Amino acid sequence: MAAPKSGLGDMADVKEAIKNQGEIVRKLKQEKADPEKISEEVQKLLSLKEQLGDARPQKFQLKTPKGTRDYNPRQMAIREGVFKTIINCFKRHGAETIDTPVFELKETLTGKYGEDAKLIYDLADQGGEILSLRYDLTVPFARYLAMNKINTIKRYHIAKVYRRDNPAMTRGRYREFYQCDFDIAGQYDLMIPDAECVKIVAEILSELNVGDFIIKLNTRLLLDGMFAVCGVPEDKFRTICSAVDKLDKTFWEDVRSEMVDEKGLAPEVADRIGEYVRLNGQLELVDQLMQDEQMMKNKMARQGLEEMKLLLTYCQLFGVLDKVSFDLSLARGLDYYTGVIYEAILTTEKVQSDGGDKNEPVGVGSVAGGGRYDGLVGMFDPKGKKVPCVGVSIGIERLFSIMEAKAEAAEGKVRTTETQVYVASGQKNMLEERMKLCNLLWEGGIKTELSYKKNPKLLNQFQYAEEHGIPFLAIIGEQELKDGVVKVRNTSTREEETFPRDKLLEEIRTRVGPS
Amino acid sequence: MAAPKSGLGDMADVKEAIKNQGEIVRKLKQEKADPEKISEEVQKLLSLKEQLGDARPQKFQLKTPKGTRDYNPRQMAIREGVFKTIINCFKRHGAETIDTPVFELKETLTGKYGEDAKLIYDLADQGGEILSLRYDLTVPFARYLAMNKINTIKRYHIAKVYRRDNPAMTRGRYREFYQCDFDIAGQYDLMIPDAECVKIVAEILSELNVGDFIIKLNTRLLLDGMFAVCGVPEDKFRTICSAVDKLDKTFWEDVRSEMVDEKGLAPEVADRIGEYVRLNGQLELVDQLMQDEQMMKNKMARQGLEEMKLLLTYCQLFGVLDKVSFDLSLARGLDYYTGVIYEAILTTEKVQSDGGDKNEPVGVGSVAGGGRYDGLVGMFDPKGKKVPCVGVSIGIERLFSIMEAKAEAAEGKVRTTETQVYVASGQKNMLEERMKLCNLLWEGGIKTELSYKKNPKLLNQFQYAEEHGIPFLAIIGEQELKDGVVKVRNTSTREEETFPRDKLLEEIRTRVGPS
């Protein structure tokens, strides 16, 4: 509905405002600015026009909700390729898959995400249960295990999750996004499933060919031991841990000031932490820290180091030692981790000049993360029965962005259909015959299309096949019908061959290969 | 939190109530009643126990939201098979795919679903945009076309939609459920894309092997023409149309009474409609109606009959005439249809004695529906520009239910993983060697698992392979390592062969086939 018209004096002001706002929109469009920014300014313009009362009010805001996007067929083709690689890897490691609803009872999510709980999308109370959209796939997985009393499973789950976060869509940060989770639940010997999770991340990132990457490793045990050794009071472990977690996004000075000024840590304690968190390496770093008498006196630190040594040994056996870095600065935000933690980052990714959020340091590209969470399932079990779990989550949106940019750069055609044959005719009144031929090919399992026009031009049909990358045309006319043959044209070479109709399927099959 | 304890006298009452309620729950469980019913009664029992103050309150309600379900790995394996059949069919017909967000701006959905709008899930207003979960895939598709100014596309979209309906889960009616939509947008010649939609439904239902089915056909034009001929006032067309739509769920007498008593139609007009809606057939029915002078005088009816004749002719060319029925009682609920309408029903499905909703007649099994909607995209375009569309939606949940029941009945093992080789050893201290061998197989693309125990028993490893249907074991011990060989055991025949380690991949590959 249009707003009530203003007086005449106001009208001039509004017209002036519309002119100015129009300029802003034009300029943004010329500059090819962020589409979301443009859309915002267009909305302002429209609401100004509405004040004027003479503009036809746009019936609908034609947009997807903030922080979400549609996938067009080209993006879907890329997405399907990425999923295929990931699912193949999960299956190669013997995983089954499950699915859970997109929303959960709100109480299922309560108390699992610490400060991030404010980012959860709630459903309106329309009577009945109080529901929220899932924030990740880990908590629903733990709920599933407890509810079905499952003690051992190796499962993957690929699905969308929802976070009311500040979107940065050019960097692949959305409010609706996919997670690809692989988790191993069960009481097993130390570090064996944990090492397989590292292996899986390494395989996926290598196969997707997104450039160099490194998988950072640490353990919560060692972190806590280190905090104790440095003199952090036990009740501050978690809050100091979340300060350390910011080291991948900000400088040590800022983290130190958060510890000292905000969280009341003694400066000398913070400085001791500062010494440790700059360390990273592999087995030699484990050995070095095992020489650290203070550390070795602390039970948690000692156990953490032993676990890390084992994990690195297993990474070596799995052939991925060159992809990992034992990194004392890795902390991970979530409260529920109890052991090993992982984070994979891309090391060659360049921040695009037009897209990057200027507040984030260059080269930060976390694309996978995870860890061991032995207590989460117990939070759901009425008797608190624990099911140890370890898992990783592949952050697929950033990988999509990279793959899309690569496809863009390669300028190669991404086929969005798999059509093998286009049934065509250059003559009039051939629709029924085209339909019959099409049906013959469909029944033979050949992916086939035809023009939905009664009498399409032959050239248009050739063009359609060429534009859509359809490799063959099956052409008929009066003569072909009389002779009981079909002409097969190779779209790229333009060679034509004629086959008896009853040999057509066979001939096409040898040309397109198994489907 | 437990409720405050009641006085002693009340306590006895509560104990009595708990005892009774306990009986109810036990009885339901014995009867294997509807799990939701059981869960409801258990909740009552728990809240009674809470009144008593001595029960440990359950920390979480361990359930999925009403009308939703998890998919376990077995169900996922069946679901994947169904999707594969459907996607193959869509691709065989040259469709691309898109995806849209799970929620839309509320205003995008407003005014599209008539009375059903009350079933839309809204998100809570947490600041920012007002959002709703999608109710179907058609409206988001129309929004996508208008937003991206797309005039021609053939696309499929498989995704979950959300309806706050009364769930009947044993009959496959959920609040969160999949739709598999195939739509053709574009200005084409009459009935050609419309016939392809029929063909697609016929192919999918035949390939899924869910028993006999029939695809009912009608057109809105003919319905409106028929209403006019019978004497229905024009402003009552839509409301009488929705009364006719109930004919698949209820008897003519009830529909007639709705028309006459509720909607104020003259009894003789209703009776005239009653004559028509009992008609169904194929081309001979079109011919019969074309003899009906009253009908042929009405432009809409005449055009509708001509369209139906063309559609049936094309169905014949596509080899699906035996699957279709021109049925004057088919009306479809949604307002936005403007031409052909479809609905596929299973004709051999039996309602299970324990599961069916007693209010629905036996044999009603709508599993696909759709039609032509030439006006919907225009509702989103600022200038009202129309894009003609026709499409079908496969209602997959009921098909899942049937496939699951079939798998259950067959008692065959549904494999939930694709693991080809299980690396095993009967000796101690072989973990590292098992890991190395596992890695060799992974690197060779073989789907491989190993036990996560340090020293698992050989028998347990054999058992694991057998239970999970893993066809081969690769077994090593001291001797095999010394000789540089691996023993390969066929899980089902128990035959063992020994191969040099460097021939292992090759030998395995010839046994498991291409992956």
Top keywords for this entry?
homodimer, 515 residues, alpha+beta, BirA Bifunctional Protein, domain 2, Rossmann fold, 3 domains, nine-stranded mixed sheet, five-stranded mixed sheet, 19 helices, 16 strands, 16% strand, globular, histidine--tRNA ligase (chains A, B), HisRS/HisZ (chains A, B)
The total of helices of chain A stands at 19
Question: What is the average of the pLDDT values of chain A?
Answer: 89
CATH topology name of the largest domain in chain A, in short, is BirA Bifunctional Protein, domain 2
Examine the secondary-structure arrangement and name the CATH architecture of the largest domain in chain A: 2-Layer Sandwich
Radius of gyration of chain A: 30 Å
Number of structural units classed as domains of chain A: 3
Protein chain pair with the most extensive contact, residues per chain: A-B, 96 and 96 residues
Largest sheet of chain A: 9 strands, mixed
Main sheet: strand order of chain A = 1-4-5-11-10-9-6-8-7
The portion of residues forming beta strands of chain A comes to 15-25%
- Coarse structural class of chain A: alpha+beta
Shape of chain A: globular
Q: What's the CATH H-level superfamily name of the largest domain in chain A?
A: Bira Bifunctional Protein, Domain 2
Text of the CATH class of the largest domain in chain A: Alpha Beta
Number of strands of chain A: 16
Distance from N terminus to C terminus of chain A (CA atoms, Å) equals 54 Å
Oligomer: homodimer
> Spans of chain A of 5+ residues with little confidence (pLDDT < 50)?
1-9, 54-58, 351-364
Helix content of chain A: 40-55%
